[in-house]
Amino acid sequence: MRKALAVVVGLVALAGVASAQTFVWPQKWTVAKPSEVKRGGTLRAAVISDYRTFNPFIAAEAGNVPDIISGGRGLVTRDPTTGDWIPYMAESWTISPNKLEITFKIRRGMKWSDGKPITADDWIMTWRIHTDKAVGSNSYDSFFIDGKPITLRKIDDYTIRFIYPKTDADAFAVASFEPWPAHIFGPVYQKEGAEGIKKMWTLNEKPNNIVSGGPWLIESYRPGERLVLKRNPAFGEWNKDEAGNPLPYLDRYEIKIVKDVNAQLAEFLAGNIDLMAPATVDHISQIRQAIQQGRLDATIKVNASPVASSQFMVFNWNKASDPFKQSLFRSDKFRRAMSHLVNRQAVIDIVYGGLGTPMYSSVYPVLTQWVNPKVPKYEYNLQQAAKLLAELGFTKKDKDGYLVDSKGRRLEFNLATNAGNNQREQIAKLIVDEAKKVGVKVNFQAIDFNTLVGQLLSSGPDRPFDAIIIGLSGGSLDWPFGSNVVPCKGNLHMWNKSGQCLDPRETQLDALYSRGRTELDFKKRVEIGYRMQEIEAQLLPVIYIAGPNYHPAWNNRLGGEHPDAIISSIWGQRELELTFIKK
Hints:
This protein is α+β, with helices and mostly antiparallel strands.
């Protein structure tokens, strides 16, 4: 399934209030009983990067507005207590004997926030737009297997069929995409095509024009300051708790935009926001101390799980205007040398205060059954880095102490990450310092997140960056390799956006990705995943670094968190729909 630059066939009532077929949110997903719940109030949170768009077809970053207001769910979702797929916007499904077709019966009575019914047309139109290459959707790659399209067919207004070109281990993950209103996007797409779609729902759009089928509506947005969401009454007509109460319980969800994680922490310590996931031991200590001293009434779960995201450094293989750097960045020997410069243990100790996990492959550490324990590791070793660079011809240093080749070209590159992410900035500075020890000049700059993402998503022979530190979240538990990352034409194949494989190992990974995704035997699929990680380690298309462990914290004015058994970086600390204000 696709990944993003950072969910929920079972417990269903067959009939509900006002003719809507109700989805009943299981009480086992929360520690609270319906009788304990209070309605109303505002959930308060903070983010360190401003939003890029309200448009679901061009959003690529984790935590984007369309994902928030929609709830990020589609026909099916996962039960966090079991990990199994269950019906959500569908009431049921049937699978063909050859496992190439899944027919979903859509839940009746669901409505968009403007009162229009949610029907099969909405999935069909959403799929058509996502699969228009000219739109540039981050979901585009999810709808193809080995270059062949997954197609959707409307059977009737409340029946839709997914037709897969091959068996697909990610079949239900594909079907979990959230629909968007055909009556809003369809006329524009039919008249103006992809260009018309890309102009829709910018940050300047009036909130009343943003139609949602999920738990939230946009009430207001002030760039650089805050996003305020309000409860969508239409959602509560078919989403209920076990006592029949409409969801969400909250009236509003307010998200402040702050300058960095230190500012985010200050807001949490002051009791101004309700949610936090501290990444460093210093931040954890400050929260614990505030709790112990009675200055903050909050809960923190230290080391709840390993991380379900990645942090890495990626080099740009597409620099036609600078053949020297392009040749360097395409060299696996150079990238191995750079991996040897990354002191992952120092990152864990200094940046994460010892509460982190080193990374050597694209599989998130929390997915332990998928992590290949024998994957080759190019660990911190300055002597080995220097040796590899010497083999590339960098044997002498200039008057400033930096390596140069036989033509006098200095070994130097620019490194960027998103401003405000203090941990990534610290990681970058550690890399700068280690690189200098062997004579590599790294020029670091923290830049605006949206600018950074724009550079990373750029395509063609000459892209505007050298190296970037960033991370990925999202993906699938059934096949944890990104459909938009591994294939050479993927939207997040970020080291090489030329549109074609440039290294034979890229081609191998592309083929193995398809082979694994179409393998329904779990054990065989894991074996393919292990092989992919071995090839990734040889190719090093990106250099994985380390990630913090997951330490969720919340203000105790909130109720409705998950039971401890399911609090993890995969499922989070709670379902917002079941969250309420206790006091």
